[in-house]
Amino acid sequence: MPEPRRTPRRDLVRSPRFKSPVARAVVPVLAGIGFFAALFGITYLIAVVVSDDTEGIRIGDKQFTIGRADIAAQRIRTYGPLLYADLKGTQGEQAIVVDHDPNRPDTDGWSVYFAYRADRGPSCLISVSQATEQLQDCDGAPITVADLERAEPEAEVVVELGDKPVVKVRFAAALPPTTVTGSTG
Length: 185
What we know:
Layout: H1 21-51, E1 63-68, H2 69-79, E2 82-84, E3 96-100, E4 110-117, E5 127-128, E6 135-136, E7 148-150, E8 155-160, E9 166-171
Antiparallel strand pairs: 1-9, 2-3, 3-4, 4-7, 5-6, 8-9
């Protein structure tokens, strides 16, 4: 007579079963949280090792390159002072105006101003009139750079000499506009 077929006994290796309903609900959740915490930790350690930030965090440059001195001076002679929008925020309080004295060489005679009237402060920002392409104040009245607040010592124009001199605006620090000195040019 043939031997009956044996079925493997499943009771030899029992999978763990939690008898309490609380344990059956909490243990898988805790295991999932532990898995994601370990995954985050490993990812964080990899990012720390790969980044190697030896220079530290640097937000923004303290120097803005305008371009070649001869080209910038010619543009100012043709179109008037250069108005650079506020790159820090949307209020325009950090906007600047760069001017050049046409009676001086291209490597000298540069000045920088904040883009607001000296007598009214940051509440009266200037703009360029679309009709005349000239500077105008917050009321629409035409103005010149003599009406603006000088940016020194917060910012200065520097010309780097070389084969083709380059004009740059160098900022002392990212100071808020309320710290501007009361000097006028």
